[in-house]
Amino acid sequence: MVRTLGLTQLTMIGVGAIIGAGIFSLAAAVARDVAGPAVLISFLVAGAASLCAAFAYAEFAGMVPKAGSSYTYCAAVLGEVVGWIVGWDLLLEYTAIVAVVAIGMSGYLGFLLDAVGIHLPTWALGAPGTGTGHRIDLLAVAICLAVAWLLTRGTRTSARVETVLTIVKIAIVLVVIVVGFTKVDSGNLTPFAPFGLGGAFTGAATVFFAVFGYDALSTAAEESVEARDKLPKAMMLSLGISMVLYVLVCVVLTGIQHYSELNPNSGISSAFAGVGLNGLANVIAVGAVIGIVTVTFSFMMGASRLWYALSRDGLMPAWFGAIHPKRKVPHRATWIIGIVSAVLAGVLPINAVAELTNIGVLLAFMVVCASVLILRYRKPHLKRAFRCPGMPVVPVLGIIFSGWLMSFLQWETWVRLGAWLVAGLVIYGAYGYRRTRQVMPGGSVDLDTLDTLDDLDTLDDLADTEDPEPRTLGA
Fold first, then answer.
1. Alpha-carbon gap, residue 251 to 242, rounded angstroms
2. I want to staple 118 with a disulfide (CB 3.0 to 4.6 A). Which of 113, 148, 255, 400 is the partner?
3. CA geometry: angle at 285 spanning 284 and 291, to 5°?
4. Are 4 and 330 in contact (CB under 8 A)?
5. pLDDT the model gives residue 381
């Protein structure tokens, strides 16, 4: 793959992954059904848990800047089996996230189409069970396939589109905040926690997927310039910018319309229309569509790069991770993820897919936090471009926070995760275990050699030398 992504583009990919359905759709749904105005607390709790994990991710990104994200990190520290479990888990979760945000975007697209007099047939308005006569969410399906097409155009082209769209999205969110504060009615914020603090914590478990876009960002390590230095900075910047915007929008959303009247499909637009700002409501809907496109872009990119890493290491067939000879992207993995996410988005309701996403990511966060803690004491000599602060407290808090949020999820979600992991172990035993030893007999990452290299480009130079024998990275 080709190195084209600098700090600005990486930060925009991170913000693009974080700011999306969580702020435009899910916040309204959680406020109405679970937390009320205390949805603000939901986002703060989720953000605190996410920050602990972000520090751990940043340390790994500055030390092992390779495609694969937490799969690569966990395999390097805890072994191949744990790495595979995390990678297999995240492959599903990233794909599910694309479906979630596409569903969220379809609500705003429907809002815009209705505003201009275009009405889709009832059967195309949502997944079965989301409304009378609903059979498929046609707009969500189209969104997933369109983003897959964009990603197969090449990293440089798609990243430029992502940067422009993210800037437009941030501008519209700022307009929402500035104008919205002039319409806030403090009476709408009372009672602040109508469902109790338990409702706010349940909401945190639901909105968690909206605050961890840096995880997908770390999968772009092999397409980043000076990845060791730039990736940790981009992770911290993207999370910080996003959390400030989330908090302010939550106050505006629940302040201009009573939580019980919020529209879970087009929350912010409907709220602004409810106070007579119909023109701005349409602009916000456009911003929501643009914003959610950037989320689907970031996570579909993350899923395809993860699949590429799994295939390169022999844990999955190499056919899936093949790089397009001209555009230098894993095109087959991208199209498969696009099609699968389109199916999920078309036939499943948003809450079911969101919970499935969250439990998998929280599990990965727990393992990554444990890995960075173990590695700090097992190999303290390794070169680290970024060091997780507050050791060992911060990683331990990340583990506790993640496990605590997982406890609020429905038991059906745990069953689905368990079934997926069992299937992954079967695949590993039948294929990956033997095949990975033929492709990379020593493992995918040799941590002891990474601290002697100043930049990931050195690794690429080594990889280009004549060496027909399989070897470990950095050897």
1. 15
2. 113
3. 85
4. no
5. 82
